[in-house]
């Protein structure tokens, strides 16, 4: 009867162990790690490019870039906010003192922009209108429209905004009705012009 040599069995076990270790280590070689890193960078680049496309399509820069709100060319850095206010309270005639809101700096500057925001914070603000600090944005920001976007599209927008060069640019805060305007402003809405020359705000249906 053929007897197995202890030495032969030990050598076989050693060979099998070496083969297993070699197989497991294939996925952790520098070449494999570099390939994985390149794939991640490529996917990230594609996501950011998608976000840039969507930001342009949605017209975010038309409010969040200085100058565009008044129909001129941009006079400030892209998406770094606007010091031209948007009236959010009811129309009161030529002597009105409306409440104003300003389109904020969307670049990732930590002090004046979105530098302290996670991508998840940006997605939540777009979908729900709730800011990072928990306050509700005014309807001037069309969150109800943005909520119709796919989650992947919202994440792409957030990734693009986080990829922008940080711009240090402080933007005025929201003001309440009755406050003396310190900045030029525009008003969006639908108005009814009566024959007597009066103007009133027409509520949307």
Describe this structure in words.
Helices cover 39% and strands 7% of the residues. The protein is built from six helices and five strands. It has helices at 6-25, 30-58, 61-64, 119-128, 143-146, 151-163, and strands spanning 85-87, 100-101, 185-187, 191-193, 199-201. Strands 2-1-3 form a three-stranded mixed sheet, with no helix packed on it. It has a two-stranded antiparallel ribbon with strand order 4-5. A hairpin with a 5-residue loop joins strand 4 (191-193) and strand 5 (199-201). Helix 2 (30-58) crosses helix 6 and helix 4 crosses helix 6 (151-163).
Short structural summary:
This protein is mostly helical and 205 residues long. It contains 6 helices and 5 strands; from the N terminus they run αααββαααβββ.
């Amino acid at each position: 009867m053929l007897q197995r040599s202890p030495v032969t069995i030990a050598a076989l076990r050693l060979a099998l162990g070496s083969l297993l270790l070699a197989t497991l280590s294939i996925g952790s070689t520098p070449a494999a790690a570099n390939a994985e890193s390149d794939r991640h960078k490529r996917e990230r680049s594609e996501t950011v490019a998608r976000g840039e496309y969507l930001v342009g399509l949605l017209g975010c820069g038309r409010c969040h870039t200085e100058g565009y709100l008044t129909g001129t060319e941009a006079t400030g850095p892209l998406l770094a906010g606007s010091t031209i206010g948007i009236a959010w309270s009811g129309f009161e005639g030529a002597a009105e003192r409306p409440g104003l809101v300003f389109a904020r700096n969307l670049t990732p500057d930590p002090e004046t922009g979105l530098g302290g925001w996670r991508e998840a914070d940006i997605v939540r603000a777009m979908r729900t209108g709730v800011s990072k600090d928990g306050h509700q944005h005014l309807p001037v920001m069309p969150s109800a429209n943005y909520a119709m976007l796919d989650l992947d599209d919202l994440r792409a927008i957030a990734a693009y905004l986080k990829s922008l060069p940080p711009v240090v640019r402080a933007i005025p805060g929201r003001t309440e009705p009755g406050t003396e305007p310190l900045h030029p402003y525009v008003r969006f809405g639908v108005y009814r012009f009566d024959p007597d020359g009066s103007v009133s705000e027409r509520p949307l249906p």
